[in-house]
């Protein structure tokens, strides 16, 4: 017995259903995330504009102890919000201090920057295992090759020292600086609205 052949027409125009932009994952907006994150120099410029006066930041008459833990937590949060640019520059200052007191790290970083400068200046592609590397890839390779040298020069210990010292100094300042002496609750809400 022979089966009859059945033909089904499946031609036509199909469009995917419209997605609500508020729900679900939007991949094109995720790929453009780098355009919304400021670069290092842009972040530094913004922080420099928002820096509080150093005389106010270092005023010793405003250092007081706090009565209880809940007020301490509130004080730390308010100090971190108010002096965030100053704290960033304290962190960068500690990094500069560590670089100046670690000559081997400074020499390795100087060699890496000089090599990248020469690579950018020549701007010639290089063949590596039958693959062409552009100048950015060559600079990245120099940076990767410098990692073991930085480790041998003690960059890991310096990094942890900078992080620990920054945390210690910033925590001490945020815990003991009496922010209520310079910023009232009304003024703080006004400052947060204008930003």
How would you sum up this structure, described in words?
It is a single chain. With 195 residues, the protein is mostly helical. Among the domains are: 68-101 and 154-184, no CATH class; 103-152, no CATH class. Helices cover 63% and strands 2% of the residues. The protein has 9 helices and 2 strands. It has helices at residues 27-31, 40-49, 54-57, 69-82, 84-101, 103-122, 135-153, 155-176, 185-194; strands at 126-127, 132-133. A two-stranded antiparallel sheet has the order 1-2. Helix 6 runs antiparallel to helix 7 (135-153). It is flat, with a radius of gyration of 28 Å. The termini are far apart. The relative contact order is 0.11. The model has no long low-confidence stretch (mean pLDDT 81). One of its GO terms (cellular component) is membrane. Belongs to the PRA1 family. This is PRA1 family protein. It is a multi-pass membrane protein. The chain crosses the membrane at residues 87-117, 138-154.
């Amino acid at each position: 017995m022979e089966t009859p052949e059945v033909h089904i027409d499946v031609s036509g125009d199909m469009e995917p259903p419209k997605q609500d932009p508020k729900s679900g994952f939007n991949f094109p907006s995720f790929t453009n995330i780098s355009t919304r994150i400021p670069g290092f120099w842009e972040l530094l410029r913004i922080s420099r504009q928002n820096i509080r006066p150093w005389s106010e930041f270092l005023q010793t008459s405003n250092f007081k102890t706090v009565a209880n833990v809940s007020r301490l937590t509130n004080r730390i949060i308010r100090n971190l919000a108010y002096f965030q640019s100053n704290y960033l520059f304290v962190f960068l200052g500690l990094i500069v201090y560590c670089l100046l007191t670690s000559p081997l790290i400074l020499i390795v970083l100087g060699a890496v920057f000089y090599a990248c400068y020469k690579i950018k200046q020549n701007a010639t592609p290089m063949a590596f295992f039958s693959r062409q590397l552009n100048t950015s890839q060559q600079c990245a390779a120099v940076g990767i090759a410098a990692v073991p040298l930085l480790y041998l020069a003690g960059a890991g210990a310096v990094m942890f020292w900078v992080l620990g010292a920054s945390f210690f100094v910033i925590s001490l300042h945020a815990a003991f600086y009496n922010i209520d002496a310079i910023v009232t609750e009304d003024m703080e809400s006004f400052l947060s609205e204008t930003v």
